[in-house]
C-alpha cells in the first residue's frame, strides 16, 4: 500500500470528529489487528478516501464494497506515516472480502 505525508478526508472533518475517528480507529486496531470488522473498515475508509465519488467513500457511507475499485484507490491513498497501518488493515479487510490485487 502507498503512503505519503498528506491526508484526505480525516482533515476535512471537524477537528472533534477527526480526533474521535482517530481514537476509534486506533482502539479498533488494538482490539482487532487483522481489521476483520466491517465497522472498523468503514471508519478507516471514511477517514482516508480521496473524495466523494470514490469507492472508498461509497463503502464508508453505505457498507457496499466494490473490492477491485476500492483496492485500486487504496493503492494511491496518501496518508501520514502514523496512518500507514490503517491503510494496510483496510487492504487486508478488502482482500478478505473478495478483492484481488
Q: What does this protein look like?
A:
The chain is an all-alpha fold and 101 residues long. 60% of the residues lie in helices and 0% in strands. It contains 6 helices and no strands.
In round numbers, the mean pLDDT is 83
Strand content: under 5%
The number of helical segments is: 6
Overall geometry: globular
Q: Which structural class should the secondary elements be placed in?
A: mainly alpha
**Main beta sheet: strand number and arrangement?**
none
Quaternary organisation: single chain
The H-and-E topology, N to C, reads as HHHHHH
Low-confidence stretches: 1-11
Based on CA atoms alone, the radius of gyration comes out at 12 Å
Distance between the termini: 11 Å
Q: What percentage of residues falls in helices of 4 or more residues?
A: 55-70%
Q: What is the number of strand segments?
A: 0
